């Protein structure tokens, strides 16, 4: 009788896990089919970067002033994908699938309805943003290194090295992401909490403001303002991030960046658009950051923070703080966040291990 009673719940748990795996598997296959069909019905404004990269890859347009576009286009050309947009998109999407499967492995059983909704949203965003010629595809190797499940110093060194390579070859501002990552890792060396996460994010903005003012000679939101000044009135720029407070100087730039950071988690500017599409995106972001905050709260309730989990969270927070300084619009924010969504989901679905548990627990 004991064996029968134990077998019943075990089968129920296995069945629940299998259903979730089937749902996610079908969604991934549907995403691949969508990419193979050439991503039909995707609005043209989502494909501007893709067209630029295709032009560079085909040798039709230089964009010599933009290092990231030039490098990405050259990589696609060297891979023989200059005139293969569907194949290039499929390879990018499959790389995202690999990262997502690694992130969900052993954790999907912890997913409830909200987490499954986030997985659906992540797959949809991946088909749009990495299922085509994309600069963001090249963040996925960084995500895979972060998802390495080993403990110790080597995974930390490997992740910093991967970020440094990406910064050198594609986007210089990722050097700042490395600094943010190291800072958050130091803060998370002991027990973490939502309050400390928010406080550390604000301190990081203060540090960046000092660096920008003293070493670059510009205010914290200078680069966003410079980009957006040239885009005012553009009909396809619908989610432009404009100054929230009309205060000049370092204080005003810090306040605006801090409000932008908060609006990434609670995107009221998108809600106020009163568009069904933007409302869905806003809901996705609210749930994403709400569940991440819950994961931080759960971790803070344990005897200590798992360093492997902290590695993932520090990467997400480091990038998000830097995004609050540079991102010109919310569309760019979501696009740049997309390749790290597997990492965010791993953070959310992680279950803290008690201090006495063996090192393999909590994976």
Automatic annotation (TrEMBL):
Species this chain originates from: Promicromonospora citrea
Record's protein name: Uncharacterized protein
Record key words, sorted: Membrane, Transmembrane, Transmembrane helix
Membrane-crossing residue ranges in chain numbering: 21-42, 86-104, 116-134, 173-190, 197-216, 277-296, 308-326
Transferase listed as a keyword: no
């Amino acid at each position: 009788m004991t064996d029968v009673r134990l077998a019943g719940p075990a089968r129920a748990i296995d069945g629940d896990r299998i259903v979730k795996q089937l749902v996610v598997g079908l969604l991934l296959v549907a995403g691949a089919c969508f990419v193979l069909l050439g991503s039909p019905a995707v609005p043209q404004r989502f494909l501007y970067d893709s067209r630029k990269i295709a032009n560079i890859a085909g040798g039709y347009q230089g964009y010599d002033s933009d290092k990231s576009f030039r490098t990405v286009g050259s990589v696609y050309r060297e891979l023989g994908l200059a005139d293969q947009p569907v194949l290039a998109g499929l390879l990018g999407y499959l790389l995202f699938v690999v990262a997502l499967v690694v992130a969900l492995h052993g954790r999907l059983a912890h997913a409830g309805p909200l987490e499954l909704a986030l997985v659906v949203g992540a797959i949809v965003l991946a088909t749009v943003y990495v299922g085509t010629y994309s600069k963001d595809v090249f963040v996925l190797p960084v995500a895979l290194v972060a998802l390495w499940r080993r403990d110790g110093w080597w995974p930390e060194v490997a992740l910093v090295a991967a970020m440094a390579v990406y910064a050198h070859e594609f986007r210089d501002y990722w050097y700042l992401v490395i600094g943010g990552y190291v800072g958050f890792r130091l803060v998370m060396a002991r027990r973490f909490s939502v309050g400390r996460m928010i406080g550390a994010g604000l301190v990081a903005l203060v540090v960046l403001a000092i660096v920008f003012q003293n070493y670059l000679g510009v205010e914290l939101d200078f680069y966003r303002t410079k980009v957006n000044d040239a885009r005012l009135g553009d009909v396809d720029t619908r989610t432009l991030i404009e100054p929230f407070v009309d205060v000049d100087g370092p204080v005003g730039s810090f306040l605006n960046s801090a409000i932008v950071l908060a609006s990434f988690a609670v995107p009221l500017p998108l809600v106020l658009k009163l568009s069904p599409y933007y409302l869905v995106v806003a809901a996705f972001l609210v749930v994403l950051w709400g569940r991440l905050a819950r994961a931080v709260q759960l971790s803070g309730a344990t005897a200590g923070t798992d360093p492997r989990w902290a590695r993932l969270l520090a990467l997400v927070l480091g990038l998000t703080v830097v995004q609050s300084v540079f991102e010109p619009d919310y569309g760019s924010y979501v696009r740049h966040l997309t390749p790290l969504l597997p990492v965010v989901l791993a953070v959310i679905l992680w279950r803290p291990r008690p201090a006495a548990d063996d090192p393999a627990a909590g994976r």
